[in-house]
Design brief:
By secondary structure, this protein is an alpha/beta fold. It folds into 2 domains: about 240 residues, P-loop containing nucleotide triphosphate hydrolases (Rossmann fold), CATH 3.40.50; about 70 residues, no CATH class. It is about 30% helix and about 25% strand. It is built from 11 helices and 12 strands. The chain has an 8-stranded mixed beta sheet with strand order 6-7-8-3-9-10-12-11, with helices on both faces. Strands 2-1-4-5 form a 4-stranded antiparallel beta sheet. Helix 4 runs parallel beside helix 7. It binds adenosine-5'-diphosphate (ADP) and magnesium ion (MG). Adenosine-5'-diphosphate (ADP) binds next to strand 1, strand 2 and helix 1. The site of magnesium ion has 4 residues, from helix 1.
């Protein structure tokens, strides 16, 4: 297990609401090998953020982990106390979000904010911490780091703010970075730069990355291996090349078709008709069946993940059939 940064096994997390249990994360298993970039892709509402928050143990009430195991470098995170987990967060595992403005303090200089993040975990002087921050600013491609250090968040562009967030997340050189839609709020050019930066960090800082996106094009750009999520479950997983060359799940094929319209970020998934199901009223059997063009009698039964080739798993009985064309 030395070469596995994160091992998530049978993770389930639910919201307990007045209307019933919402299984937002339903028996999810994910392996993040050391120095890899793993992608989680799926439409909005399919459970990507909940999966990330569960791993970080940042679920908010009424959300709760109900089962499974999360091991970071062999350490079981579900068994840690809240205080122990707070030490792990930022130090060994970090997370960045779509909108940096909501995570940054608007009335504090960005350099100070990143400095605080390192002082929380390291017994070093303020001066040393500042130097560390400036070094990290350079590493994440922030030009004129001394000048930026004294800026307030609103004085920076969206791209720079996201670089600040990445610097803050990386300042303790964590083993794992979870990036939840980190480029969704950015324009295409800046998005490409940020993705390029993440690839670089994986190599220079020796950090593994979990990249979450609703956009398969983004995932294809940087990920080694991809998990496709639908209605709280993994429906397909494969290395990026295989997933694009030989997608087996009808949902993955639908996502794939929508990548062609990548240039326009606001394009909705036109190729998959219907909408993501209400998790309180899931259909019997395969959750995707009401939207699936290949639906048949077998789909009324719950589907399990089938290994169709080494490291290529699909939650669809039809995937067993040999594909032609
Ligand atoms: N605060 C909440 N209360 C109840 N259900 C929630 C809450 N937040 C999220 N959910 C449920 O969890 C599902 C997954 O949400 P999320 O992980 O945020 O999706 P994604 O990040 O893939 O867009 C949603 O479809 C919703 O049903
Ligand atoms: Mg999300």
């Amino acid at each position: 297990m030395k070469n596995t940064t994160l091992l998530v096994e049978h993770l389930s997390a639910s919201f307990f609401t007045g209307r019933g249990e919402i299984k937002a994360v339903n028996d999810v298993s994910i392996t993040v090998p050391r120095r890899s970039i793993i992608g989680i892709v799926g439409e909005s509402g399919c459970g990507k953020s909940m999966t990330a928050r569960s791993i970080m143990r940042l679920l908010k009430y009424p959300g709760k982990i109900v089962g499974g195991s999360i091991r970071l470098m062999g350490k079981e995170l579900t068994a840690l106390t809240d205080a122990e987990m707070a030490n792990v967060r930022g130090e060994e595992i970090s997370m960045i979000f779509q909108e940096p403005m909501t995570s940054l303090n608007p009335v504090m200089k960005v350099g100070k904010q990143v400095q605080e993040a390192i002082l929380l975990h390291r017994k070093i002087t303020k001066k040393e911490a500042k130097e560390e921050v400036l070094r990290m600013f350079r590493e994440v491609g922030i030009s004129e780091p001394e000048k930026r250090y004294n800026c307030y968040p609103h004085e920076l562009s969206g791209g720079l703010r996201q670089r600040i967030m990445i610097a803050m997340a990386m300042i303790c050189r964590p083993k794992l970075l979870i990036a939840d839609e980190p480029t969704t709020a950015l324009d295409v050019t800046v998005e490409a730069q940020i993705l390029e930066l993440m690839k670089g960090l994986r190599d220079t800082v020796d950090t593994s990355i979990v990249l979450i996106s609703h956009n398969l094009g983004v995932i294809a750009e940087v990920c080694d291996y991809v998990y496709v999520m639908y209605a709280g479950q993994i429906v397909e997983q494969a290395d990026t090349f295989t997933l694009f060359e030989d997608p087996r799940h009808p949902y993955t094929k639908g996502l794939m078709a929508s990548v062609k319209s990548l240039e326009d970020k606001n394009t909705v998934l036109e190729t998959i008709h219907g909408t993501v199901p209400n998790l309180l009223e899931l259909p019997e059997g395969c959750a995707f069946s009401p939207r699936c063009g290949e639906v048949c009698e077998n789909c009324r039964q719950a589907q399990s993940l089938i290994e169709v080739a080494p490291n290529h798993l699909v939650r669809c009985y039809a995937s067993k059939e040999v594909q032609h064309g």
